[in-house]
Write a structure and sequence with these properties.
This protein is α/β, with parallel strands linked by helices. It folds into three domains: 6-46 and 230-304 and 414-465, FAD/NAD(P)-binding domain; 50-90 and 306-412, Alpha-Beta Complex (Polyamine Oxidase, Chain A, domain 2), CATH 3.90.660; 103-212, protoporphyrinogen ix oxidase, domain 3 (Orthogonal Bundle), CATH 1.10.3110. It is built from 16 helices and 19 strands. Bound molecules: flavin-adenine dinucleotide.
């Protein structure tokens, strides 16, 4: 390698930009690498997108940062945004089941309920469902567990179908948007996986974990940035220095050359020669790029499925909305077959969104109970969501303003065997040592996990390029 190494970062979402920023500060063989970010859209940010709505700015993609994974808060600190982070005013949430909203037990959003009593008192389970869950206490241990199984298979076996469908499904669905009977226990619910291995009964395991974890752990579970999470993207962009940013071009081939470099081809006919590349794109896009140069890796990538989701922002006259209980919103089990899969009472959850006393802002997610609803025309979609809201919380009139964001093939599905698949993928890419995959499809799809993966891929590339 002569002179400064040339590195491409394909994909200008949070993963790619976190990787690019890390590399702008690196020295490789005493040189600053020359960086190019290539993004298919005109706009950087990927799933992170903020937009003016109802007199304020709202997030159309992710809306909150999990504080337990430190990468996002650390990045906010480094970008001088830390002092602006806000916590939700409400953190309790409900499930819309058995005909009304029922509060989810405290602690469950952090992964486990604070004991089993609150679960039973919540009324989310019917008396029969609760009795079935109790059978777990008497069941023998499940025998030797498979290395991985679905969340559904464990929860149905130990606690019964109601516990799965009314409690675990809406919770996991809110994050992964998927089917718990296919989602990997190890990848999506590692704490449940560990409890099931360590304890004969899942309920006893939950109780022991509840006692071991102090209820008030201190800070909030989630935080966000007033003005929208896209401020992270503008903050990162500002730090890219002399990085070349090419937007509106899609990379469709990565071709290794005999001298160890790579050629990236884009859909505009551009040919970019680089020493290394980080592919921070969805699995299906990486699959296309690697089809010829790494067919085994491409086949593994093809196995990572995606689901679609729509986010519908609604502004109502305050007088049209009955007083909302002190919660952040509610989740809807898939089995209810509703258009709505979750609703955040945005203007009572986040202090910065309560800009007008005469308006109530709701953020609604669509796609789990009725996947086809994400493709409905805008008016029908808004009307279907509004009628679900009428049934759930008694909204009395249509919204005065709305915005629909459709996210096609947005949520990678960590199906059973996901972690093993990712390991195989890494092995299948060993013959391309300076190509790295990073992002939501692999080791966690939350924004903090994506930042951590982008930075990790950048360190790996820097190491691989060091003489
Ligand atoms: C509706 C919704 C709500 C969410 N809520 C939260 C939340 O509250 N908190 C949280 O932590 N996470 C949340 N997530 C998840 C999180 O937003 C994403 O997992 C994360 O932003 C993904 O970042 P990424 O950079 O890996 O991928 P993306 O954001 O998908 O970025 C990939 C980029 O690659 C580009 N690209 C694709 N193909 C090519 C190509 N061939 N050539 C060049 N560029 C290409 C794309 O245009 C895109 O910009 C949510 C996701 C969605 C969809």
């Amino acid at each position: 390698m002569n002179g400064a190494p040339q590195i491409a970062i394909v994909g200008g979402g949070i993963t790619g930009l976190a990787a690019a920023r890390w590399l702008t500060r690196a020295r490789i063989g005493g040189e600053r690498p020359r960086l190019t970010v290539i993004e298919a859209e005109q706009r950087l940010g990927g799933k992170i997108r903020s937009q003016a709505f109802a007199g304020t700015t709202v997030d159309l993609g992710p809306e909150a940062l999990l504080t337990a994974v430190p990468a996002a808060l650390r990045l906010c600190h480094e970008l001088d945004l830390e002092d602006e982070l806000v916590a939700p005013l409400q953190s309790r949430t409900a499930v819309w089941t058995r005909g009304r909203l029922r509060e989810l037990p405290a602690g469950i959003l952090g992964g486990l309920p604070d004991g089993i009593g609150p679960v039973l008192r919540s009324g989310i389970l019917s008396p029969i469902g609760a009795a079935r869950a109790g059978v777990d206490l008497m069941l023998p241990a499940g025998g030797r567990m498979e290395p991985d199984e679905s969340v559904g298979s464990l929860v149905r076996r130990r606690l019964g179908s109601e516990a799965l469908e009314r409690m675990i499904d809406p919770l996991l669905g809110g994050i992964y948007g998927g089917d718990p009977d296919r989602l990997s226990l190890r990848a999506t619910a590692p704490r449940l996986h560990a409890l099931a291995r360590e304890h004969r009964s899942l309920i006893r395991g939950l109780m022991a974990a509840g006692q071991a974890t102090p209820v008030a752990s201190g800070g909030p579970t989630f935080m966000t940035l007033p003005g929208g999470l896209a401020r992270l993207i503008t903050g990162l962009q500002r730090e890219l220095g002399p990085t070349e940013v090419i937007s509106g071009e899609r990379v469709h081939r990565v071709i290794p050359r005999p001298d160890g470099r790579y050629v990236l081809r884009t859909d505009t006919g551009r040919r970019l020669e680089v020493d290394a590349a980080i592919l921070a794109v969805p699995a299906y896009a990486a699959q296309e790029m690697l089809e010829e140069s790494a067919p085994t890796a491409a086949a593994e990538l093809a196995g990572i499925e995606y689901t679609s989701v729509a986010v519908v922002w609604l502004a109502f006259r305050a007088a049209a909305v009955p007083s909302l209980p002190e919660r952040s919103g509610f989740l809807v089990p898939r089995g209810e077959r509703r258009t709505l899969s979750a609703c955040t009472w945005a203007s009572s959850k986040w202090p910065h969104l309560a800009t007008r006393p005469d308006r109530v802002l709701l953020r609604c997610s669509v796609g789990r109970g009725r996947p086809e609803a994400t493709r409905l025309d805008e008016r029908t979609l808004v009307s279907d969501v509004t009628s679900d809201l009428r049934a759930a919380i008694g909204i009395r009139e249509p919204p005065v303003e709305w915005h629909v964001a459709r996210w096609e093939r947005a949520m990678p599905q960590y199906h059973v065997g996901h972690l093993e698949r990712v390991e195989r993928l890494e092995v299948a890419l060993r013959h391309l040592p300076r190509i790295r995959l990073a992002g939501a499809a692999y080791h966690g799809m939350g924004v903090p996990q994506c930042i951590a993966q982008g930075e990790h891929a950048a360190t790996q590339i820097a190491t691989a390029l060091r003489p």
